[in-house]
């Protein structure tokens, strides 16, 4: 055979063929020819491959039978070799001419495949770390081993241990052929971790206007560990500024080799400074330096810079040997001059005058210079709250609006700006497209949108539309996409919405068996995206008819013979389909039996002592346009029938008979939360009045005993909740942010006739986890207070665990709540967040004792899990401050509460 071209990897060991070969003289003449001649490829073969398809390799080489090649002088063969070489599959590639017939040549593509990975081993690491490294290195059995893959694996291992605060990491790799697999190798990584270090001190130099502590607060990812700081002895820093000696430096200077023997020195020389321990992460450290400069810029120091920084180990001695200790970080800053805003001028604005724009900008001459504040006020950093210059224009259709602040003069400590504006033409919405709604009907989404074809573009309408889609609860709130696509040729814009469906239905299921009681349990389902009109369409049952945005709930609960209840409700949020007018109807029925012991000592439940109720509620809601369209007015007509048969009179004032409770409830609410499960901003306010007919004013002869048959009352409720984001969003997707929830709740019951007692129905139960005694048969509003049992008095210092149920229901209550929340996961398959809380509440039996400042207080922590099908799962651990006794344990004042399916009031 005649060798024509060869590309060989220097490190590859290619076996040589020593068999004598007879070479065609015509090939020798071809090799020695210096005159270019055109040949035609008459055939192509492949040799040396064991795992790859030969036809695939010929295709990659770009050589084909019938191709014309010039020899010498052509580049067809060199290009073929490079094409194959770029696949990183071979350590040697050759193109050989094996036969010559006239002007036809026959070639052979000869390759030597790289070895494949058969296994990976790690030396010098723990077993648990090996599992982590397998994922970090990206090495998979069967992969072709390349230098690049080995290099990437080594870098991944080094990064893994750097993030764990190790320094001096060394990684090497050995290759060994696997005897059990042809052309396969094992890789063994030898890891020397080095020393694990933490940050001992972070020292700042050159900061005259800002204290060290304020700068350290900006470094969220670079924290000092718990330490002792020495005073008054000093040593010199690398920058020539005296700083306190470290604890270990002091020991070495005094000649101590251990902690024992010098405790008497602590008081005069040391004071404790407690910080959270932290690892040194180079990437976080780089980010923290940027945050320090951002903080300086926010204070007006726009020229602030970090001129030098270093990390070095401190030292300590053991048995007279000097060793490296933890890491010290020194940062030298140059603050520069503090600047202030000067004159603001406008250029290019025709829609709004300079005075209007200056007033909206809100920056005055003499204000501390902060470029971030300026950009935010101009709207260069989009904010959902609006109120910026860009929002003013974009809400009036100016989609192509641009604004750019330019420094025009810098004199002493003052900076003048000219703000250049390009207004552009107004844009009209042309098409509104929706994608990703595989289950929800398009009209359910479209009716929530504020962007309508033919209307002017508005950024506020875009943000509001996103909020309304999120509040439907059918889609992943983090994946709602909005993409405006301008059409400059006709001055229009297409708006494309994209959504990702998630499960919104819920299932409640529990079961048990009790001796003497029988079967106990609960079965409940809530279909939150139901479709009534498709009930009779067989093809729509997959597994249920869905997509029209209606809600259907059914629930059955049983406590054996003692108690059964049945509930069903239906809600249509858009009655008629044209306006946001909601319609809902609910039915419920329950029975509660008591009894006594028979002759055999068995407790028997009997209908001779029972309480039965039946109720129906019909409600109509209407969205208002004034004061704004976040308001809704709801009318509800409620009827409940109570049938008592020898039931304890302490609850009602009578033990047998029938009571008919008819009431009208009016509710004015304003809901502006950005999303329902984990709201980050917005508010929720509700004011309601529930009124029964004034029977005693119509019929003057009604007695107290008669009033129980037709109870009368008027009840007033107010609830206010607001959510405030705290700090900057964190995490790779910027979805993690602290949120402060502040809430107030009030409830008051009144009567029409002072000669009659307050209604035994519709009162307030306060305390515990928001669960009711008596299974909710009495129609009370259940007000939770974490850390306390259900109250039976209004004295915060009296908190018994064995309240008498006959007197635990109030006619008024106040409740105040502060919660600090943090999301651990915002994934729709499992939204998880933690919280800390402070609560204060109390209830009163009459208005004479009412004191809004005399409250029971509690603090605690909790977790919430929102899971598809099961809804809310949560728990709280609350400590009742007013339950704590002198000398008592914290356990005696604490209560653990659990919730499933709903958040208590």
Low-confidence stretches: 1-21, 228-244, 256-276
Overall mean pLDDT score? 83
Strand portion = 35-45%
Q: Helical percent range?
A: 10-25%
Main beta sheet: 16 strands, antiparallel
The tally of helices reads 16
Task: Count the E strands.
Answer: 41
Strand order within the widest sheet?
23-24-25-26-27-28-29-30-31-32-33-37-38-39-40-41
Distance between the ends:
89 Å
Overall, the morphology is globular
Structural class, please?
A: alpha+beta
Query: What's the gyration radius in Å?
Result: 39 Å
Give the SSE map.
Elements: E1 2-8, H1 25-32, E2 37-47, H2 54-61, E3 68-71, H3 76-85, E4 90-101, E5 104-113, E6 116-123, H4 127-137, H5 147-162, E7 166-167, E8 170-177, E9 184-192, E10 195-196, E11 199-205, H6 212-218, E12 227-236, E13 242-246, H7 247-254, H8 266-269, E14 270-273, H9 282-298, E15 305-318, E16 321-334, E17 340-347, H10 354-361, H11 371-378, H12 389-394, E18 402-411, E19 414-422, E20 428-435, H13 442-446, H14 459-472, E21 481-487, E22 492-498, E23 506-514, E24 518-530, E25 550-559, E26 563-572, E27 581-597, E28 603-623, E29 631-645, E30 657-671, E31 682-691, H15 695-698, H16 704-707, E32 714-730, E33 736-750, E34 764-766, E35 781-783, E36 809-810, E37 812-827, E38 830-844, E39 856-867, E40 871-880, E41 894-900
Parallel strand pairs: 2-5, 6-9, 11-16, 17-19, 20-22, 34-35
Antiparallel strand pairs: 1-4, 2-3, 4-5, 7-10, 8-9, 12-13, 12-14, 15-16, 18-19, 21-22, 23-24, 24-25, 25-26, 26-27, 27-28, 28-29, 29-30, 30-31, 31-32, 32-33, 33-37, 34-36, 37-38, 38-39, 39-40, 40-41
């Amino acid at each position: 055979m005649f060798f024509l071209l060869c590309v060989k990897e220097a490190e590859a060991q290619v076996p040589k063929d020593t068999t004598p070969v007879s070479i065609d003289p015509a090939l020798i003449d071809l090799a020695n020819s210096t005159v270019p001649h055109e040949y035609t490829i008459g055939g192509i073969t492949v040799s040396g491959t064991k795992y790859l398809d030969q036809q695939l390799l010929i295709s990659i080489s770009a050589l084909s039978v019938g191709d014309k090649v010039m020899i010498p002088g052509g580049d067809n063969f060199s290009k073929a070799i490079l094409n194959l070489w770029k696949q990183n599959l071979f350590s040697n590639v050759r193109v050989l001419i094996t036969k010559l017939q006239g002007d036809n040549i026959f070639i052979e593509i000869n390759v030597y495949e790289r070895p494949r990975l058969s296994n990976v081993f790690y030396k010098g690491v723990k077993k648990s770390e090996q599992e982590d490294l397998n994922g970090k290195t990206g090495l998979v059995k069967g992969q072709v081993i390349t230098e690049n893959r080995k290099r990437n694996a080594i870098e991944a291992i080094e990064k893994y241990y750097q993030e764990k605060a190790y320094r001096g990491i060394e990684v090497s790799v050995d290759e060994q052929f696997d005897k059990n697999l042809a052309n396969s190798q094992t890789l063994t990584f030898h890891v020397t971790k080095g020393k694990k270090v933490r940050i001992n001190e972070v020292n700042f130099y050159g900061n005259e206007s800002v204290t060290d502590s304020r700068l350290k607060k900006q470094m969220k990812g670079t924290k000092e560990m718990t330490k002792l700081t020495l005073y008054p002895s000093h040593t010199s820093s690398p920058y020539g500024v005296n700083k306190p000696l470290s604890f270990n430096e002091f020991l070495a200077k005094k000649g101590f080799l251990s902690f024992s023997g010098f405790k008497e020195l602590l008081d005069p020389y040391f004071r404790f400074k407690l910080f959270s321990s932290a690892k040194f992460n180079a990437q976080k450290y780089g980010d923290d330096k940027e945050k320090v400069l951002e903080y300086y810029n926010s204070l007006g120091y726009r020229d602030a810079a970090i001129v030098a920084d270093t990390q070095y180990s401190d030292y300590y001695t053991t048995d007279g040997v000097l060793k490296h200790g933890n890491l010290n970080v020194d940062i030298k800053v140059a603050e520069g001059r503090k600047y202030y805003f000067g004159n603001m001028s406008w250029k290019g604005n025709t829609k709004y005058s300079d005075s209007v724009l200056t007033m909206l900008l809100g920056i005055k001459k003499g204000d501390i210079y902060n470029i971030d504040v300026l950009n935010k006020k101009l709207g260069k950093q989009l904010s959902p709250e609006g109120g910026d210059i860009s929002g003013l224009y974009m809400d009036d259709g100016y989609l192509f609006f641009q604004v750019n602040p330019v420094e025009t003069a810098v004199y002493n400590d003052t900076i003048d700006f000219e703000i250049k504006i390009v207004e552009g033409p107004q844009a009209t919405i042309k098409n509104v497209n929706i994608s990703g709604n595989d289950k929800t009907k398009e009209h359910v989404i479209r009716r929530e949108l504020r962007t309508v074809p033919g209307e002017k573009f508005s950024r506020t309408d875009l943000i509001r539309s996103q909020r309304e889609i999120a509040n439907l609860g059918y889609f992943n709130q983090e994946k709602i996409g909005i993409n405006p696509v301008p059409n400059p040729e006709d001055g229009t814009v297409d708006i494309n919405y994209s959504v990702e469906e998630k499960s919104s239905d819920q299932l409640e299921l529990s079961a048990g068996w009790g001796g003497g009681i029988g079967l106990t349990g609960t079965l409940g389902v809530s279909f939150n995206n139901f479709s009534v009109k498709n009930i009779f369409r067989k093809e729509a049952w997959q597994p249920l008819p869905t997509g029209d945005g209606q809600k259907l709930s059914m629930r059955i609960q049983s406590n054996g013979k003692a108690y059964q209840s049945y509930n069903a409700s239906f809600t249509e949020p858009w009655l008629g389909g044209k306006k946001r007018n909601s319609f809902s109807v609910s039915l419920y029925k329950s029975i509660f039996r008591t009894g006594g012991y028979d002759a055999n000592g068995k407790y028997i439940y009997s209908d001779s002592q029972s309480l039965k109720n039946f109720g129906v509620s019909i409600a109509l809601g209407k969205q208002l346009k004034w004061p704004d369209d976040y308001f809704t007015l709801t009318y509800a007509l409620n009827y409940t029938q109570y049938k008592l048969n020898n039931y304890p009179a302490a609850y009602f004032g009578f033990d047998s008979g029938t009571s008919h409770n008819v009431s009208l409830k009016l509710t004015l609410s304003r809901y502006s939360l950005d999303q329902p499960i984990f709201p980050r901003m917005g508010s929720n306010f509700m004011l309601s009045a529930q009124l029964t007919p004034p029977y005693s004013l119509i019929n003057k002869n009604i007695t107290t005993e008669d009033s129980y048959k037709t109870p009368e009352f008027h009840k007033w409720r107010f609830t206010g909740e607001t959510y405030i984001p705290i700090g900057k969003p964190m995490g790779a997707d910027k979805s993690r942010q602290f949120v402060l929830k502040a809430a107030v709740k009030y409830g008051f019951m009144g009567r029409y006739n002072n000669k009659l007692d307050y209604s035994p129905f519709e009162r307030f139960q306060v305390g515990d986890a928001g669960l009711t005694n008596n299974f909710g048969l009495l129609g009370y509003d259940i007000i939770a207070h974490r850390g306390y049992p259900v109250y039976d008095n209004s004295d915060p210092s009296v908190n018994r665990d064995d309240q008498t149920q006959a007197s635990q229901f109030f006619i008024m209550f106040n409740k105040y709540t502060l919660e600090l929340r943090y999301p651990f996961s915002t994934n729709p398959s499992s939204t998880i967040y933690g919280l800390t809380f402070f609560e204060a509440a109390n209830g009163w039996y009459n208005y004479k004792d009412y004191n809004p400042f005399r409250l029971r207080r509690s603090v605690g922590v909790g977790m919430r899990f929102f899971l598809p099908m099961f809804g809310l799962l949560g728990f709280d651990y609350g400590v009742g401050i007013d339950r704590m006794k002198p000398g008592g344990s914290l356990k005696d004042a604490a209560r653990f509460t659990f919730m499933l399916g709903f958040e208590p009031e």
